[in-house]
Description:
Elements: H1 20-40, H2 51-58, H3 61-90, H4 92-105
Amino acid sequence: MTRKQQKPRGFRYKPRYYDADKAEFNAYVEKLRAERDARDRGEYRPDFKGKFTNSLRKGSGYQKQIALYNLRLLVVLVIVCTIGYYLFSTGAIASGMNKFLEVFSKKDGLY
């Protein structure tokens, strides 16, 4: 015994309101598109004139992230260079290395 499978109900969209101006505008746009398609005879013509420069002007979030990363990197490098200059100018690194080498060069040192 096989049952006949019912088809799905389907989707019937009923708008809550009707905008006559919008419907008229959409009909006008469709008419212009049909004229353009008839004139072009189905040939593909890309329409991206000026879109690259517009996207550059807007600036993406990715570019902002890179700029913030570069700024943080610059600040860290300036701080590290300042600390390094201070340590070299006061001779703290040289005296620390001398103390370290003295400890390991003595026979009674850590060994």
